[in-house]
């Protein structure tokens, strides 16, 4: 499978986690000019791609098998369509043998990195072997990469 880039930039590591700028499409907006809830979940998913699934990431083998086991989204403010691209900071809050939990902080374009996020979320992801239809143990290289992003979820 070739490494196709979803965005021009692929994000970068910070002291807070991995930050990706995700463009917001016109179709992501609801009737009130806010980002629609279902679309926000898609934008979170898109943010994970450059962090976890690009060829240069130790976790890239998971792109052939990674399942969402749990998802929580909390809205603490508004994000409008014209505040694109949104800034998504991702980090891990737990890394286990076959699964890990990702924390997210979403801020509108131009918001200070330490400002209160408009959206906080978590996703529990399970590494999965499609051929055997069973969870797949995280090899040491993947686990170490994920653990390098460990921090407590502040729920700001």
Keywords:
single chain; 156 residues; alpha+beta; 2 helices; 31% strand; globular
What does this structure look like?
With 156 residues, the chain is α+β, with helices and mostly antiparallel strands. The protein contains 2 helices and 7 strands, in the order ββαβββββα. Strands 1, 2, 3, 4, 5, 6 and 7 form a 7-stranded antiparallel sheet that branches. It is globular, with a radius of gyration of 15 Å. The N and C termini lie far apart (38 Å). The model has no long low-confidence stretch (mean pLDDT 91).
Helix content: 10-25%
Query: How many H/I helical runs?
Result: 2
Average pLDDT metric: 91
- Structural class determined from secondary elements: alpha+beta
Quote the distance from N terminus to C terminus: 38 Å
- Strand proportion, as a percent range, falls in 25-35%
| Poorly predicted parts | none
Shape: globular
Largest sheet: 7 strands, antiparallel
Please report the total strand number as a whole number: 7
């Amino acid at each position: 499978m070739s490494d196709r880039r979803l965005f021009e930039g692929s994000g970068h590591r910070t002291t807070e986690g991995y930050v990706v700028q995700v463009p917001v499409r016109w179709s992501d907006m609801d009737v009130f000019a806010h980002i629609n809830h279902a679309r926000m979940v898609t934008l979170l998913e898109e943010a994970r791609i450059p962090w976890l699934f690009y060829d240069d990431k130790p976790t890239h083998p998971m792109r052939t098998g990674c399942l969402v086991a749990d998802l929580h989204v909390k809205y603490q403010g508004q994000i409008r369509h014209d505040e694109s691209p949104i800034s998504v900071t991702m980090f891990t809050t737990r890394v286990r043998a076959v699964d890990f939990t990702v924390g997210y902080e979403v801020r509108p374009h131009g918001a200070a990195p330490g400002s209160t996020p408009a959206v906080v979320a978590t996703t529990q992801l399970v590494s999965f072997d499609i051929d055997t239809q069973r969870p797949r143990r995280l090899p040491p290289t993947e686990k170490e990469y994920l653990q390098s992003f460990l921090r407590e979820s502040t729920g700001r």
